């Protein structure tokens, strides 16, 4: 069992204040050790769209903290939508 975990929140631009809703989301394949939790998404006419500020939580595990973080970011890279934002400094402080 892996010893470390990491979660990266993917939000819309402007969050937590004013933010757009309804942007089209392209969700590609994620690595097998990644779980993508939908938080602020909706399915509209067969298309995945943003529904609120916190859109996804991307979780990963690894034998080391560095591996867990790197794997979570690989999962984030599979997500694309306009004005997408996520912190790039997780576990670096």
Automatic annotation (TrEMBL):
<feature type="domain" description="Phosphoribosylglycinamide synthetase C-domain">
    <location>
        <begin position="4"/>
        <end position="93"/>
    </location>
</feature>
<dbReference type="GO" id="GO:0004637">
    <property type="term" value="F:phosphoribosylamine-glycine ligase activity"/>
</dbReference>
<dbReference type="InterPro" id="IPR011054">
    <property type="entry name" value="Rudment_hybrid_motif"/>
</dbReference>
<dbReference type="Pfam" id="PF02843">
    <property type="entry name" value="GARS_C"/>
</dbReference>
<protein>
    <recommendedName>
        <fullName>Glycinamide ribonucleotide synthetase</fullName>
    </recommendedName>
</protein>
<comment type="similarity">
    <text>Belongs to the GARS family.</text>
</comment>
<dbReference type="InterPro" id="IPR000115">
    <property type="entry name" value="PRibGlycinamide_synth"/>
</dbReference>
<dbReference type="InterPro" id="IPR037123">
    <property type="entry name" value="PRibGlycinamide_synth_C_sf"/>
</dbReference>
<dbReference type="InterPro" id="IPR020560">
    <property type="entry name" value="PRibGlycinamide_synth_C-dom"/>
</dbReference>
<dbReference type="GO" id="GO:0004641">
    <property type="term" value="F:phosphoribosylformylglycinamidine cyclo-ligase activity"/>
</dbReference>
<dbReference type="GO" id="GO:0009113">
    <property type="term" value="P:purine nucleobase biosynthetic process"/>
</dbReference>
